[in-house]
Design a protein that fits this description.
Elements (H helix, E strand, L loop, with lengths): L1 E10 L2 E11 L4 E5 L6 H8 L7 E6 L2 E2 L5 H6 L2 E3 L12 H6 L10 H6 L1 H21 L15 H13 L5 E5 L7 H18 L2 E5 L3 H7 L3 E5 L2 E6 L1 H5 L2 H8 L1 H8 L1
Parallel strand pairs: 3-8, 3-9, 6-7, 7-8
Antiparallel strand pairs: 1-2, 1-4, 4-5, 9-10
Helix pairs in contact: 6-7, 10-11
Length: 258
């Protein structure tokens, strides 16, 4: 679905992404791992249109999407979440979800004056859909809670819920487990698997929790120093000498050898 061809992103003399090439298969949950500074989030930001590449190309289902802005990629079904959740803190959880779909009637001044019935009908439909999403994520009891009052893990679930309010084709999840307790992390993992199997979502996941990666992801892609170092199953990656050296550390390498 997504192919990255010899991608570079330089900041002055610093090569954050340095000739990375990879493919994300349609229908997969692909893991992207690597040490801090490996270029993972920069790669996400280039693919998702938040940064323009220095050189290289990104395609989605054969279409060149290199450098397209996030709002155009959103309409093509490419969405991403962030390591730090971006909620509208003073709005309810339900209202946060209802804001996601584009081109709502209430956004038009003309409709606000002359099509109020249509706006009310659309809002009722959006509220029903939001409630279905919250039921799916098992957080319906937070529907009327201010989003700013949620815990970090609950905010991550809300971000995942936003992707369900539109026809997402591929979702990039940036450290979805950061600051999340184990119980909520399992809930997030279950939701990702269900979205993948039941609704055909494709995911690419940046995560440092190798148990989480091992449970969800196949294949797993490893980055180091802006390049793709290795790709394979989680088991193959954990046994790869170059990965153990560059990512897991020499201490674990020596332990594995022993």
């Amino acid at each position: 679905m997504i192919e990255v061809h010899d991608l570079h992103k330089h900041f002055g003399g610093f090569r954050a992404v340095d000739g990375a090439s990879l493919a994300i298969r349609k229908g997969s949950i692909t893991g992207l791992i690597g040490p801090n500074g490996a270029g993972k989030t920069t790669l996400f930001n280039v693919i998702a249109g938040r940064l323009s590449p220095t050189s290289g190309r990104v395609t989605m289902a054969g279409e060149d999407i290199t450098g397209l802005p996030p709002h155009e990629l959103f309409h093509k079904g490419l969405l991403r979440t962030f390591q730090i959740a971006h909620e509208f803190s003073s709005m309810t959880v339900r209202e946060n979800l209802m804001m996601v779909p584009p081109n709502q009637a209430g956004e038009s001044i003309w409709s606000a004056w002359f099509a109020r019935g249509r706006i009310r009908q659309e809002e009722r439909a959006l509220a029903r859909k939001a409630d279905e999403v919250l039921d799916f994520l098992t957080i319906s009891h937070f529907a009327d809670e201010k989003a700013g009052n949620l815990s970090g893990g609950q905010k991550k679930l809300l971000e995942l819920g936003r992707t369900m309010m539109v026809d997402a084709r591929i979702v990039f999840l940036d450290e979805v487990g950061a600051g999340v307790n184990r119980t909520l992390l399992n809930t997030i993992a279950d939701a990702i698997v269900r979205l993948n199997k039941e609704r055909g979502y494709t995911f690419c996941v940046i995560e440092h929790d190798m148990d989480f990666i091992g449970r969800l992801c196949d294949p797993v892609i490893v980055m180091a120093q802006g390049k793709v170092l290795a790709e394979g199953s989680a088991r193959e990656i954990m046994q790869n000498e170059a990965v153990i050296e560059a990512y897991l550390g020499t201490g674990l390498k020596n332990k594995a050898t022993a």
